Amino acid sequence: MKLHEALNMDINRVNREIENIVKFDPDLPRSSIVAKSVLELVRSGGKRLRPVMVLVGARFGSKSLGRKQWQLAAAAEFIHAASLIHDDVIDRSDLRRGQPAMHLKTGVSSAVHIGNYMSLRIVELLSQYSSEQERYVHDLSSLASTQLCIGEYQQMTHAFNYDQTLEEYLEKSRNKTAQLMATCLRTGALSSGCDTHTADLLYEFGECLGLHFQIQDDLKDFTQDAATLGKPAGSDLRHGQVTLPVMYALQEPSLSPMIRSIGPDSSETDIEQVLEAIRQCGALKKTEEFSRTFLDRAQAIIQQLSSYPAHEDLKVLLKYFSAA
Ligand code: FPP
Ligand code: MG
Fold this sequence. Notes:
The chain is mostly helical. It has 17 helices and two strands. It has helices at residues 3-6, 11-23, 33-43, 49-58, 67-90, 102-106, 108-126, 137-157, 166-191, 196-223, 226-229, 235-238, 244-250, 256-260, 268-280, 283-304, 311-323, and strands spanning 95-96, 99-100. The protein has a two-stranded antiparallel ribbon. Helix 2 runs antiparallel to helix 3 (33-43). The longest helix has 28 residues, at 196-223. The two termini are 14 Å apart.
């Protein structure tokens, strides 16, 4: 069963609202390359995890779901999709969801402009929610994108930094992945009149799921093959990403010099050798165990929210993320 089905959520309504962001932009001709490219992108699918999180958050408030919540859900997907266009340019990645990345279809310059348009269109769209009581909308419309950029910048500056600390790794992961998910839940909750204490707990829950999600993504670089990943296995290591499995492997005195020797000009043979050494040394198991601690924290938050009927939805989310 798909996530939105398990949550009894009308995903087509989300998709319509996402398309409306482009279709009802008075400044953008429908026949333009930008409009066509964005529509093609959003129609190409995706799990819609972030919109789902906005809507789950909204189920914690007293108000029933209205246009605002659907727009916030759609905005979350738009921000995420925009960031992936830029990410694929930065990572020189040609495939996204098994399809050619935007920059492959439009060229790099157009892709960057399209990503810029999408992220700023959200600021414009959500500026309609600008009363003092709606200040929380800014967290989604602008702060979330700023933090995505900071996270990406932190990742770039730590490339090939084998002395990166756990704290730095987690901060980068929080910024680039977890905070958007967390913001989705909190923004959805506050939009439907939920109290701030509960909304903050939902933020923490989203952050735990997001950190687990990112660590699992980092693990996949070692555990999945190129066909499943849609990119060569070991891409992170090749690009200098010192992810958690690498950090655990670095604690092995016999492996550390070999890992530290990997740089931008390393040969495929050297990279393959280090990948295999990391797979064999127990680092993946330690990473998995650390990742699971975030699920335990998420579980504890569900218990704190058990007086809300919507806590059942958090259980569904937790199960989904545990299996991902
Ligand atoms: C995927 O990471 C990328 C992100 C989670 C965030 C990317 C953010 C930016 C490029 C900042 C620009 C932001 C905006 C709003 C325009 P990954 O490369 O680890 O995962 P992947 O395997 O899915 O590519
Ligand atoms: Mg990438």
